[in-house]
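Example protein
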Amino acid sequence: MSIRITAKARRGMVALTAVAGLALGMAACGGGGDDDKPKPSSSASKDSGSNPSAQEGQAETPLAELRGTNGLLLQITSAERDSGGFITVNGTVKNDGDKSVVIPPQTSGDETEVIKHGPSLGGATLVDSKGKKRYYVLRDTDGRPLTTTGLGNLEAGQTLPVFMQFPAPPTDTAEVDLQVPTFASGTIKISG
């Protein structure tokens, strides 16, 4: 039931973000009736030399960088524990190579129920060395992995935001190893 609540909350946040974006867009497009006065160019702020914020694509230092095959790089930006007993791992997959590359199908894992829902990061696991346990990506009631799905081609230099959701290890566990098929493993710190 908590998975449904989390998914419902996530859909609500997406809808709220979309509505806020539309409202902001409509406010920006609505003129004040002074069509005779020149309006400042939006490029003026770009030339002011300010650094882009994290929301403009520049993320903070990653928790871990996992190198994959064919120049793929998985950068983990957060691993947050929530009150529902889950950990959500966020990051980006980047094609660091100079050619287009397909994200390997092995990242979906080898479970038939997960594979039938298409390419994903469903094969990812968290390993709690302290508690000697391995945690697999959560699935919904239809067997779909609670992770980014529909992975395919990445052009050279292209990035793709990704997420994975796992059951949370005990609260005294602060670090886990993230393992994704075809990528090197990496240690990440859990926040929250």
Observations:
- The beta strands are 64-67, 72-81, 86-95, 101-102, 125-128, 133-136, 153-154, 159-167, 175-179, 186-189.
- The CA atoms of residues 33 and 76 lie 47 Å apart.
